[in-house]
Amino acid sequence: GRSYALITSGENNQHPLRLYDVARGMGHSVAEVTLEPSVAQDASFEVAKATFSSEGRLLAVARSDNALHMYDVRALSKGPLAMFQHDELDAVGSAGFGVVQASWVEGRDCRRVGIVSGGNDGCVRLWDPSIASSDKSQGRVLARTEFDVAYFSMGDMWEGEKPLVLGHCGGGLYVYDFLDGDGLPIASQRRRRGY
To answer: What is the per-residue pLDDT across 128-187, written as a single tens digit (0 to 9) for each?
Structure first.
């Protein structure tokens, strides 16, 4: 890639995000912003993952406070372009690790992008940066488990890969290989444990 994002933890739960232009070999950051604080009062958080969209213009930051923030790297100083939130924990949850994984997805024509994230609510959700954060379709559940999401992988269906493989904190593994009418993965009967 052309860019590198470095997110560190500073004093008073401040998290600077620095953007570097690797292609030009610059040894200093070209942009910097402090991540938004947690929505929970006096809560600290960590960044679990940061990932660029394929064209490198958008950066998604998965956070341990169960939030997913999206930045436009061309306007980093303006703060998050969108802030998405997974639901709170339910009775089977624990303190958890927040949003542990984020993965960009593109339409077949590569014109429309979305971000998929897995969080403490046991859900893998789809977010669309082209519509308002408050839109009811935001955070559409692609998969739900009885435990916190530990990891998931999105496959390329056009290359014969499974659309979604999901592992949860209870040790279960789910393989999703059917699509609904909207082209979104739905669970098959293939549920595996102990992998």
So the answer is: 988 888 888 899 888 888 888 889 998 877 777 888 899 988 898 988 876 665 666 555
Read off the pTM. 0.82
Q: How many CB atoms lie within 10 A of CB 158?
A: 7
- 106 exposure class (CB count in 10 Å sphere: 0-12, 13-18, 19+): middle
Q: Nearest-CA neighbor of 130 among 109, 113, 105? A: 113
